[in-house]
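Appendix B. One record, verbatim.
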Amino acid sequence: MAKALDRVHDAAKRGAHVVCLPELFQTQYFCQREDHALFDLAEPIPGPATEKLSLVAKQNNVVLVASLFEKRAPGLYHNTAAIFDSDGALRGIYRKMHIPDDPLYYEKFYFTPGDLGYRALDTQAGKIGTLVCWDQWYPEGARLTVLQGASILFYPTAIGWHPDEKAEFGVAQHDAWRTIQRAHAIANGVYVGVVNRVGFETGNIRGNSAPGKGLEFWGGSFLADPFGRMLAEGSHDKEEILQGEVDLKLIEDTRRNWPFLRDRRIDSYAPITSRMLDGK
């Protein structure tokens, strides 16, 4: 937390108006193992973490997006993004909707799927939409957030390579991740900011690591404009403060020339709420 607060100060000094932190930034990625003791990492919202985050947002006059392990009630936990305005007010929260369950990403053990829906929240920097990591593969979440007026979608993220898979699949995995989120920017005519953690981790919490070879988080955070162009992109191997500029006029110009929202056939989309359309 102390490190994150320092980075918020640094970003503000560089001129940032909105700051987004990576997913579950306060610890190593603990979902590499299923451990009941790790539920003790969770906090209520509001709580001690949100007090510190609210203060740093106010002190630096920035809008702040922070990913937290939320304790909603005994036995009920969420992977939650909290959005603070530049006056320190908690504008709202978004609870991660899509929860993965893959080797070393055992999130279904910890997190209940969100029940607040997709949200675009008003801030001093405009309307901001926040989704979280696994949500980034789903065009429905991006579209429903943009339809509420979001001008930028933030994706706090923790994604990386399994060591045994990197040589064969690593390039393709990263390219797919980059491509799907640029596609959200293009299809919806918005900016997309992706904030990924970086570095090798074994899920070490309080001296205990997960079994196995760990995860190499691939970094590569980026900001894409409504045309899908990369305005800023981080490296794979070091921590960075990545900066880019959002031009609201470009959203209007892009949507005038690529009027995807205008030409949507909303009368034809009802079947999207079916799991499959094969009659089964």
